[in-house]
Amino acid sequence: MTQFLDVPNMARWIQRDGVEAILRTMTEYLEDDFRRWQSFDKIPRIASHTPFGVIELMPTSDQVTYAFKYVNGHPSNPSRGFQTVTAFGVLADVDNGYPVFLAEMTLLTALRTAATSALTARVLARPDSKCMALIGAGSQSEFQALGFRAALGIEDLRVYDVDPKAVEKLRRNLEPLGFSITIADSVAEAVAGADIITTCTADKAQNTVLTSENVAPGVHINAVGGDCPGKTELDSEILNRGRVFVEFPPQTRIEGEIQQMDPEFPVVEFWQVLTDAAEGRRSEDEITIFDSVGFAIADFSALRCARDATADLQSSIDLVADPEDPKDLFSLVSSLKPVG
């Protein structure tokens, strides 16, 4: 039988254990897996693009466990009453190929993305960072804020979004949790004096959400929104000014901020920083940029974390046709009465 974690029980886990506690634990899973990055199969995600959005499969394996995530990205969905992103994921046993764990991943992806952002910021941002600017107040924003508080203790947020309702939603959700929120009238106002800038917008276009003139020396930029071809948020000059850290370059060059740049534009793979194969932040004034597109290994980590933490919330589903005689699949239907 395959263990299943559905939406209500995913929500129960998050409510029971708390977002920040889960993010701290998930960050440990991520760091463990990123440190053994070279043991995983890695390919860019498999994408099917349409005028409406994109549907993607994200597979990976460490030769013991196989994982994949199904995920969509449809920026116009909220105007039609649907989520921009939905997802589910599977862990399977490489030894026999059987799926052993199936989970919703819309909530889990929000946690995974925030945990990855928090891990990279803990390593790359200045340790004395106190204030974060959030450009974009959509579905990811609360999770990002909680992730940065869990990793760096940041509670001072400056927020800008073109949608005032989204900003009010964020304020309503986060102020009761102890955050100090300043609502800005522009991107420039939001980022002034910020130590960390998180860009997380949904529009599928090559936008310049953040311009170079608004980026001060020493800032860490957590660029989350660029995650498919033709979708960017940063002025290319910012990339020239700072050092860019990525998950998997072949995927990021297709989908990330660096799709704007020459194919040979230099980047640092983040796993190398964790293993001391490459330098992280080199000075107080250096601009560090995490060009985050989301990679399958992070989903692998998130699924492992959810599986291990929710045994009491999982149900068993009969997902695999498994006859008593493995060579007699027909036995599962031969005892059924004919129709009519």
Helical amount = 25-40%
What does the main sheet amount to?
A: 8 strands, parallel
The topology string of helices and strands comes to EHHEEEEEHEHEHEHEEEEHEHEHEHEH
Question: Which strand order does the major sheet show?
Answer: 9-8-7-10-12-16-14-15
What general outline do the C-alpha atoms trace?
globular
Query: What percentage of amino acids are in beta strands?
Result: 15-25%
Number of helices: 11
Mean pLDDT reading: 94
Low-confidence stretches: none
Tally the beta strands.
Answer: 17
N- to C-terminal separation?
32 Å
Structural class: alpha/beta
Polypeptide structure, described:
- This protein starts with a strand and ends in a 6-residue tail after the last helix.
- The chain is an alpha/beta fold.
- The chain has eleven helices and 17 strands.
- Helix 2 packs across helix 4 (141-152), helix 2 crosses helix 10 (296-309) and helix 3 (106-124) runs parallel beside helix 4.
- Helix content is 33%, strand content 24%.
- The chain has helices spanning 7-17, 19-35, 106-124, 141-152, 164-174, 187-191, 236-241, 249-255, 270-274, 296-309, 331-334, and strands at 2-5, 46-50, 53-61, 65-73, 87-93, 99-104, 131-135, 156-160, 180-183, 196-199, 206-210, 220-223, 232-234, 243-246, 268-269, 288-291, 315-317.
- It is globular.
- Strand 2 and strand 3 form a beta hairpin.
- An eight-stranded parallel β-sheet has the order 9-8-7-10-12-16-14-15.
